[in-house]
Design goal:
This protein is an alpha+beta fold. It is built from eleven helices and twelve strands. The chain has two domains: 154 residues, Aminopeptidase (3-Layer(aba) Sandwich); 125 residues, 3-Layer(aba) Sandwich (Aminopeptidase), CATH 3.40.630.30.
């Protein structure tokens, strides 16, 4: 494996531009996404190469510097970063060989991370080995997201829904309708109200949300949906984004109508590109949200949250601020 150089970011951008359309590169590790949510100068990437100099592992990260401290954390609107692996013969590789290569590449990527006071990172769904992080002194928590396989008929998806979810959808259809929107005001306000009730920081500004929505519309990478009542009052809103394989529910929030989220989650299927394989609800540890997502018949998928803090003051401050990791 090769050591990191200042040209790694340029190499990765070139690699990503060539990879898109030829092999799967998740939306949230693509350079255009990272530039959008991090800013051009606040993200970097660790790369691992094989003996021929071909990129076989990538791990982008978002960083900030505060009070002279280096902080690595998740950027806004982003559920997963790396690591991602790109092995030439991955489809036919023996499991023992794949495990060995993944361990080698991940160890290489972790060694390239800059020294930081605070590190918080959410890994891609499908990573099944965090031991190299553990051996490097990091900690881990397993979280869960929920996915629907979109290659099955919609009737089969409906058959997997929980009975009371079906009742909620049918009841909501009497009073609500789903429609696309070009305005983020209602979604932002619903998200802000939810964060206030949960006594947590929202994590983004209205202008940041507007910028994200405009980019998704321009690139035809997503859609904003509203559940509205007969008075055109928005009862729930959901922002979707997608790459060439998977759709992600980036943001969703609702008001007082408890039926609106189920209706929105069901009818969003009609707005997804036909070629997508999966819908990822992007997980939640909030009991009511988790219960509602399971009601959609989605499959539970684990993913890792990796963290480390080398500063006791920052650890305490993170707890007081109720950040994702303290």
């Amino acid at each position: 494996m090769l050591n990191n150089t200042n040209s790694f970011k340029d190499k990765y951008i070139q690699f990503a531009n060539q990879a898109i359309g030829k092999q799967y590169l998740p939306l949230q590790i693509q350079p255009a996404w990272l530039n959008l949510v991090c800013g051009n100068d606040q993200w970097d990437v660790c790369l691992s190469f094989d003996k021929e100099g071909t990129i076989v592992g990538v791990m982008p990260y978002f960083f900030q510097k505060k009070w002279g401290l280096m902080l690595i954390k998740m950027p806004p609107f982003t559920d997963y970063l790396g690591p991602c692996f790109f092995f030439k013969d991955d489809a036919t590789m023996k499991k023992t060989r794949r495990y060995s290569l993944q361990k080698q590449v991940l160890t290489d990527l972790i060694a390239q991370l800059p020294s930081s006071t605070y590190f918080f990172y959410q890994c891609q769904v499908g990573l099944n080995d965090w031991l190299p992080f553990k051996w490097a002194g990091y900690q881990q928590t397993t979280y869960y997201t929920y996915e629907i396989d979109l290659f099955q008929p919609k009737e089969d998806i409906w058959s997997q829904l929980r009975r009371n979810t079906k009742r909620n959808i049918k009841a909501a259809e009497q009073n609500l309708m789903i429609e696309p929107s070009e305005e983020v005001n209602e979604l932002f306000q619903l998200c802000a109200d939810t964060a206030r009730k949960q006594k947590r920081a929202l994590g983004f500004t209205k202008s940041e949300l507007e910028k994200l929505h405009q980019w998704l519309m321009l690139e035809k990478r997503g859609i904003l949906l509203h559940a509205v009542d007969s008075k055109q009052s928005v009862q729930a809103a959901l922002l979707l984004a997608w790459d060439n394989q998977k759709a992600y529910t980036l943001l969703s929030a609702s008001g007082t109508n408890v039926l609106a989220p189920s209706l929105l989650n069901w009818y969003l299927l009609d707005y997804l590109p036909n070629e997508l394989r999966y819908l990822d609800f992007c997980g939640s540890i909030i009991p009511d949200v988790e219960h509602a997502t399971i009601g959609m018949g989605a499959t539970r998928k684990p993913y890792y949250k990796i963290f480390r803090s080398s500063n006791l003051f920052w650890h305490i401050l993170a707890r007081l601020a109720k950040t994702e990791y303290a």
